[in-house]
Amino acid sequence: MGPNVKKWLLAQSLAIAIVFVTGLIIVSLQSEQFNAKNCFQRVVTSLSENWFGQNCRGGIDWKFHRVDELTMEQIITYVEWANSSSCRLSHDFGGNVIFTAGVDGQKAVCLDPAVRPERASGAWPPVTKKKFNECLVYSFGIKNEWSFDEAMEALGCRVYAFDPSMNRTRHDHTSKIHFYDLGLSDRDEQRVDDQEKNWTMKSLDSIYHNLLGHQGKIIDYLKIDIERDEWIVLPQILSSGMMDRVRQMGVEIHLLSPTGNNTLDEIRQNIKTLKSLEDYGLVRFDSKFNPWSNDLKIIDNVEWWGYDAYELVWYNSKLARKGHEM
Ligand SMILES: *[C@@H]1O[C@H](CO)[C@@H](O)[C@H](O)[C@H]1NC(C)=O
Ligand SMILES: *[C@@H]1O[C@H](CO)[C@@H](O)[C@H](O)[C@H]1NC(C)=O
Ligand SMILES: *[C@@H]1O[C@H](CO)[C@@H](O)[C@H](O)[C@H]1NC(C)=O
Ligand SMILES: *[C@@H]1O[C@H](CO)[C@@H](O)[C@H](O)[C@H]1NC(C)=O
Description:
It holds the Pfam family Methyltransf_22. It comes from Daphnia sinensis. This is Methyltransferase domain-containing protein. The protein has helices at about 5-35, 35-45, 50, 70-80, 145-155, 205-210, 230-240, 265-280; strands at about 90-95, 95-100, 100-105, 105-110, 135-140, 155-160, 170-175, 175-180, 185, 190, 200, 220-225, 245-255, 280-290, 295-300, 300-305, 310-315. By secondary structure, it is of the alpha/beta class. It has a single domain, classed as Rossmann fold, CATH 3.40.50. A hairpin with a 2-residue loop joins β15 (about 295-300) and β16 (about 300-305). One 2-acetamido-2-deoxy-beta-D-glucopyranose binds near residues 260, 261, 298 and 301. One 2-acetamido-2-deoxy-beta-D-glucopyranose binds near residues 190, 192 and 198.
């Protein structure tokens, strides 16, 4: 082997080493970028990467994104996201197992000491001499399915249940579950149609102040499942100041109208409503799609196949009890 060949070999090994190290640097830089806002971009660049995007959960900063520019894929990524590490003890309450199909009707409740419902059983440290308030639940949309309400009663809560569509008048379902035949809206009104429908509707602040006289109380859990009326109700709950009285909230949201045409702009307006809740201080710790809501819909005259309904659950960080880290 002549000296020239040796030099050539050395040069070649050096070149290989340089390429290798450069490659390593590029790869590590990229994984460095694979978080926060870049995570979002990657998640939405292709649908197949959407699954991959699960790694990103908890690390997405949605403040970087203008709602007016979101695509439908980005909207889905947004609603499917949850800050799941923000509640360590999240449990589903209620629900029925449906033979071979799944579970329906359950709602996540956060039992972390800072935000758990008052007097929740299993509370630690145990509530001792300290005077405590009775746990209070408002539950809108029952449809004769009481499993969540009964589970919350078992947890120690008094439950006010509302549904104008059940053809049942005011009664007590159990000693601690009180039923009212009225619906949740952004104002007090009668909702009448040309069939038999004549529903009494009330706003949350009207129910809380006038109907139930709950001034000063905290609603430990507000459940809302009212078939698209959530989009008129949620902004009013925020603007009326009632959000300050709600410790946890579980809402079934409906992205798409079952009949007629959806526009992307309309859907973006609803996403703005969700973002305004989170900008206010709600922390979303759970998101589940409703497996029975997979359907063909139309958005801006284009067919869209996907889930329409999601169960989103938040706790109100403004009402987190002091002295407990979340
Ligand atoms: C998730 O929730 C925690 C509070 O538990 C908060 O500090 C964090 O900023 C949240 N993350 C995102 C991405 O919203
Ligand atoms: C509602 O209930 C009443 C009896 O309580 C019954 O006469 C009526 O037919 C019911 N209406 C509907 C729409 O089911
Ligand atoms: C609807 O119900 C309200 C209150 O019960 C009643 O005052 C009103 O007359 C009813 N309207 C119709 C159209 O039946
Ligand atoms: C949607 O709107 C278009 C025109 O804007 C109309 O041609 C079509 O029939 C509508 N579809 C439904 C299901 O309403």
